[in-house]
Amino acid sequence: MGALLPKLADLLKEEYQLQKRARGEVMWLTRELESMRAALLKVSDQGPIDQPPDAQVKLWATNVRDLSYDIEDSIDRFMVRIDTPMVPDNPHGFFRGFVERSLGLMSKAKIRRSIGVDIRQIKSRINEEKERHDRYSVVGGRVVAAKPVAPTVDSLRLSTLYKESSKLVGLEEKTGYLVRKLMEVPDDNEGSSQQLNVVSVVGFGGLGKTTLANVVYKELRAKFDCGAFVSISLSPNMVGIFKKMLRQLDEIRYQHINGETWDEVQLIDELRKFLRNKRYIVVIDDIWNISVWKTIKYALVDNQLGSRIITTTRAIDVAEQVGGAYQLEPLSPNDSIKLFSQIIFQSKDKFPPYHLSEVSQKIMKKCGGIPLAIITIASMLASKKGNEHEYWYRVYRSMGSGLEDGPDLRNMRRILSISYYDLPPHLKTCLLYLSSYPEDYLINRETLIWKWVGEGFVDTKQGRSFHEVGGEYIDELMNKGMIQSSGDIVNYQDCYRVHDMVLDLITSLSNEEQFLTRLDGQQSLSLPKKIRRLSFQTSEEEDIKLLAAINLSHLRSLTVFGEGFSLLPVSPSLCPFLRVMDLSGCGKVDNQQCKDICKLFHLRYLSLSSACITELPKEIANLQFLQVLDISSTEIKELPPTFIQLKQLVYLHFPNMMRLPDGLGSLDRLQEIPNVITIDSPTMLHDLGCLSKLRRLAIYFDRWDESYEKPFIRCLSKLVSLELLEVDGTLGSTCGSSSPGPQRLQSIDMSFCTLTAFPGWISSLCSLSSLHIILLTLGEEDLQVLGSIPSLSDLYISVGKATHDMNRRLVIGRGCPFLCLTQLSISSRSMDVGFAQGAMQKLRDLSLGFEAGETMDEFGDFNFGLENLSSLESVDVWIRCSGAKPREADDAVTAIQRTLHMNPNNPTMEVYMIC
Asked: Locate the Disease resistance R13L4/SHOC-2-like LRR domain: which residues (predicted)?
């Protein structure tokens, strides 16, 4: 719906010249779909979040989803046909050209009539759906909600609250740490033991937050006057929560509280009055948003009696705002196998027999240390007697596929699904899309954002780029614990993983909603009749044959991970509505198949990875809707002239050293070019300057003369959206201009070219936070300019020689404020810079690089004034020993250590000798 409704609005534009009746029906259609969307959202908000939706509601949602897909297909089919350019004037005869233009106009009139017919048919389907919904789903003007048939999450949580402590595994160390964190008294805070102390346990669903909080609560309860343990839901009843809290704090006094008709304010007042003179401990379990915590916090008065509060949450930002955040880690491999063995063999010390040892380790790896997953899978395995080896392997292979079923798995998914149902609709869609990736796959941040863009999942916002908005989506999913940072960097980009249990959940939901179909060797016998999105994750011959038999006429997205895959359904007659094609995992596409791909007119996203592709055909211009093109892993050397007709392109990734076509500046929607662009003429700088939405620019000059200087400055001044700039190559005395640079520029890396003068335009960059630069000379004026950049926090500067009087260092003092600088790396042959009292007051990390002999010869000492850097925490010293006299390098180290001992912050020091 989110993608469809704006398209309906576009259809009403004058340029499409719809018939009056058709325009009226499009407007009616828009209103009906908006009402349906609102009704579906209302129904989803009525029932308990931890219960599956009513079957009739699910059927209605499925039908509305199919309707929206079919409507969008009809609109796209119309727009492609109506936007096709008319036949150009024929230079060989006026009459023939007139006839051809007339035929073109007649054809477009016919197309407009056809869209009117399509809309009337859709209108009829919507009316049928409305009547069916009214007939079966509504009684007395309200939606009939199904009664809960499955255990609620609150009832499932009870099993963790009442476990015997002797049966808990891996909690001893965590419990001890949390107790110390709650009860610790800081040495520098007299009387702090009487202050209210709050610790917030944060972690993924099923990680054991509730269990840990309950164990700590039981261990500490006797040390306090009173206590309470209350659990919060996604839509909490605050009156009920406060009444429950009062009953637990004093069961006798508040035994009849449920019969009272107190409102929220009265209950908060009563709690504050009761707790005023009590030393209490309270656990607030499963907080979902900070507003709920703020309401509860009003009741928990800080009475300076040493009270303690424990909260649990799945959201990192909530934990940080509550305070005292404690990130709960998964179980260690050793504790995981202990818990696994306890469930199956009723003993922590009894391990699986030899023939089950290997599969046990594999199962534990997929469980990833999550107690809920280990308990669930182990309970399933414990119930199976006879032929365990085959059954255990079948369970292992099915983990993450979303296909295995059973009460235990359904309950686990229900607990994990709370985080899913807490997401706004656009993030639910984005999360379900991650089921297209194989388990343990490293998901590149940039690739994921641009695939979401190609799918139409990223909403543009005023003044915001696709990349910014898509990045926020990833951050929100990270905050909710639905995806995890892998800690890996691929192509300078962060990567993420989906935990196998989350993958199992979203794959199950995706199958249920027929959102995406996976061919991975684990699929069920029956496939959906309409496959909208297909992820091909196998090279098995049977699966390839199965693909050939599938109806792909409704396919919108195709992702291939199978290396052996060679059969490509690229014909528009087979999949006429394909929008996303990711063949980055398939290396067998050739030039002819690439030409066939260019007939898929609806493509928004295209990623190719094949050494067999050596050229991009001129037919690429057919892809008028294309937004994202990644051909970085092909052997293409240059782009055809027709490439510049792709006016919708926002992201372009091409092979290194590939020549870009003239006229690239006409692609004025481009936001991202991750490559280094080789500049071989001033004209290229002019073209780049036209890309006003470009966020990042990396350029290489293979030569330099005066003809480049002004075009380069003009180019920068026009790139108003630029945030990152990298410059490499033979740069000389350029950039002396003081013309303002891009005001959104945050990072500049010019560390691969030596400048003879400091770039004057840098002084105008108010948002600049990181600067890496190599200068032939460094003067006092340069330091003053650098020190005045208000947001500069990271500075790397390498200097050939300083412009100053012999035997006098450039001293950085209060005149060069460097208000935000926290990291400084400075390197020169002789260390030309010193620090005065009060310099760089926020500097934490310093790196110095110099030649010991040169420095001693020129200045006679190694006194750089490091004792004056009041916030300094660490110093790295890189000393080049070549040409130094005996002991000069050691003298340098001794002198620096002496000044650091004088520094009140007592910074650490690492020394690296380069001899």
From this structure: 554-909
| Residue 755, in any domain of the structure | no
Q: Could you tell me the CA-to-CA distances from 413 to 46, 152, 416, 767, 829 in Å, in that order? A: 21, 12, 5, 45, 62
Give the DSSP letter string of 665-728: GG-TT--B--SEEEE-SHHHHHHHHT-TT--EEEEEESS--HHHHHHHHHHHHH-TT--EEEEE
Q: What's the confidence (pLDDT) of residue 199?
A: 94
| 240 and 204 share one domain | yes
The tally of CA atoms less than 13 A away on the side-chain side of residue 819 is 9
pLDDT tier at 402, thresholds 50, 70, 90: low
| pLDDT higher than threshold 90 for residue 878 | yes
Question: Where on the phi/psi map is residue 245: left (φ > 0), alpha (ψ -120 to 50), or beta?
Answer: alpha
Helices (H) and strands (E) in the chain, counts: 27, 29
Same domain (yes/no): 476, 499: yes
Residues 158 and 139 in one domain: no
The whole-angstrom separation of Cα 531 and Cα 357 is 39
What element of type H or E holds 528? Answer: none
User: Taking the alpha carbons of 795, 800, 804, 810 in that order, is the dihedral positive or negative?
Assistant: positive
DSSP string, 289-350: -HHHHHHHHHHS---SS--EEEEEES-HHHHHHHSSEEEPPPPPHHHHHHHHHHHHHS-TTP
Q: How confident is the model at residue 569 (pLDDT cuts 50, 70, 90)?
A: low
- Count of domains forming the chain: 5
Q: Are residues 160 and 34 in the same domain?
A: no
Is 215 within the bounds of a domain? Answer: yes
How would you write 814-835 as a 3-class SS string? Answer: CCCCCCCCCEEEEEECCCCEEE
Q: Is 877 left (phi over 0), alpha (psi -120 to 50) or beta?
A: beta
406-444: b (≥16 Cβ within 10 Å) or e: eeebebbbbbbbbbbbbbeebbbbbbbbbbbbbbebebb
Cβ burial, residue 844 (10 Å; 0-12/13-18/19+): middle
Structure tokens given for 466: 């696709």
- 246 and 296 housed in the same domain: yes
In 3-state terms, what secondary structure has residue 16? helix
pLDDT at residue number 803:
59
In this structure, the answer to whether residues 429 and 454 fall within a common structural domain is yes
* Residues 428 and 388 placed together within one structural domain of the fold: no
| 175 and 315 belong to one structural domain | yes
The pTM (predicted TM-score) of the whole model is 0.75
Chosen domain end from 336, 371, 399: 399
Residue range of the domain that includes 279: 153-327
Distance CA 33, CA 6 (A): 12
Alpha helices in 443-563 (DSSP H): 445-455, 466-479, 500-513, 541-549
Query: 293 in a domain, yes or no?
Result: yes
- Tokens coding 92: 């060989």
Q: What is the DSSP letter of 664?
A: G
pLDDT 10s digits, 725-782: 999 887 765 555 566 778 899 999 998 888 888 888 888 889 999 999 998 888 888 8
Q: Under a CB-based contact definition with an 8 Å cutoff, are residues 206 and 369 in contact?
A: no
What is the per-residue pLDDT across 588-612, written as a single tens digit (0 to 9) for each? 788 888 888 998 888 999 999 888 8
